[in-house]
Structure formats: structure tokens, C-alpha cells
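A favour, since you know our C-alpha cells better than I do. Go ahead and set the record down below.
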Amino acid sequence: MEARLYEKKQEKKVRCGLCSHRCLIREGERGTCNVRENRDGTLYTLVYDRIIARHVDPIEKKPLFHFYPSSLAYSIGTVGCNFRCKFCQNADIAHMAADQQGRIMGKEFTPEQIAEEAEVTGCKSIAYTYTEPTVFFELACDAARFAHEKGIKNVFVTNGYMTAEALDMISPYLDAANVDLKAFTDEFYKNFCSARLKHVLEAMRKMKELGVFLEVTTLLIPGLNDDEKELKSLTQFMVSELGEFTPWHVSRFHPTYRLTDRPSTPVETLRKAREIGLSEGLKYVYTGNVPGEATESTYCHECGAVVIPRRGFTVLENRVVNNSCPDCNAPVYGAGLS
């Protein structure tokens, strides 16, 4: 299928405008994502109907803790990614085309079928996830439109590297996003993701401007992005640019893919990051990949009462009443809470 958001250039080259790499692609070649190919001066998406992973998940697994808690999300992904994260947790599918000589796999599945499956399985939303949804943008756009016609919400689990043009195009159908803010230094993004920090921050501001419900996740890697000053700067950005009620998930790293020389993140590092986030003004900070931590639950930011207790991705009880704490009536931030 012909791709969207690109320009034709001289000598059969094309300029992709989907993500902030804005790849200039020569005839017969692919962009950084490895799933958009220039054929005779026309850019094609190679994954429009090729789903590599699909599951029904709790929305909390995305993770989204303040967006229709305890609901189900029909979760899909294709091959491909526009980042080259050395610590990728889904490298077998995200980097399949890059690591396996352009190979692309997946089951044929149309946008209409995706929306229908979400409806049949009782899902409140469709989550475009597992790999980077920006690289299967055409599929996500069309599926999201069909989903909205059925009253189903749409969620991106994303690295936040899409262009403003892409966000404008999908914004009528994009209800929420969890953005993986991988670090708060450009050096980290360049060395470990082959990307630039500024474009992620721009996209997050744009999502906020467009009214997309936002939550943020940061995977803390020992010695690379867990410096206290960096975490303070990150949370200060969130408070000032995204709002103090934006939930922040700090997640535990385990050695994987091409980053195996680092140990797993100490639990104490996650707890310290949570303290930093709260001290800088964030109202909701969670720790992830640490089974049994009490900070998986949602607490009232005013009185401290547990309003949504969780165990892992399971909501044990939802005590929110009229979007408020039942103990002190303070508002609880979120969508579809009660």
C-alpha cells in the first residue's frame, strides 16, 4: 500500500515525513524503520496488513493506570521500529527486518478486522504496541477510525518520535498514549537509541496540546540514565510542560538484546526515583517490573488514601467515586475512572 506523509524528490528519491528521522530514501531502499520502501519513486508501507503480535491485555499492562482502569485493550503490533535501542525488550519483532536481511513476517489482518476483534473480545480500547506504532501508521490510522465508529478508544504505546504532521493526522482518533521517555540527555538517545531527545519532547508537547491523554514510562538502566540530577530534570519537564497530574512509571531494567553488561536495576533505585518525582511535584509515580511493590497502587494526592489498589497489572478494587477520592473528595486524575 502507498504510504502517507511523504514527498517525492528528484532522481526518484522520497522524503518520509512520518517520524522525526525524516528519512531521504533512494529508489529501491528502505527508511530507518525498515518497513517503508521506495519503489520507483513511490513510498510503500510493507506492514499495512501484517500483524506479528495480537493479544487481549489489561490496559494496566501498557502501562496506563489512569485511563479506564481494569478495562481490556486489544493489543496489536507489526514488525519494525524507527529506533535502534540496544536494550530493546521486543527485539525479535521490532528489529526483525534490520537483523534478518529485510525479513517481514505477520498474519494478514485488515483494519476492519482489528476493530471487529476488539469489539467481539469486549475491549474498551485498541493498543498499538509491542513495536513502535508510528511505523505502522497507515494501519493504525485506519483501524483507529473504524474503532471510533464502534465507540472503542485508541492508545499508542510509543517512543514519541512521530512528526507534528503525523499527530495532526491521527489526533481525531487517538485518545491516549504512554510515551517511553527513555532518558533526559541527548547523549543517551544518540548512543543507545540512534535518535534525538528534542524530537520526543516536541511530540509530547504536541500530544498535550491536541488533548491526547498522556502517561510516561522511563526504564531506569544502572549508570546510564538513573542520575539523580537527570531524573530531577526529567520530572521538572513533566510538571512544567505536561502537568503535575501526568502519571510517571519508573520501570526496572533487566539485561537484554545488545545491552547485557549492565545489572538489573536495584529496587532501591526505583524507590529513589519515585521519591524524586513526588518531591518535584508529580502527583502519581509508579514503580514497574517489581512484583509486590505497594507503589503499583494509586493513592489520593491529597489525603494519601489508596483509591485503586493493584497487584501487578490486576486492579483489586476501584474505590473512585465520581472521579474523586471516597475519603476526602479530592479529584482523581484520569479518564473513565468511575
Notes: The chain has two domains: 6-45, 50-296. The two ends are 41 Å apart (CA to CA).
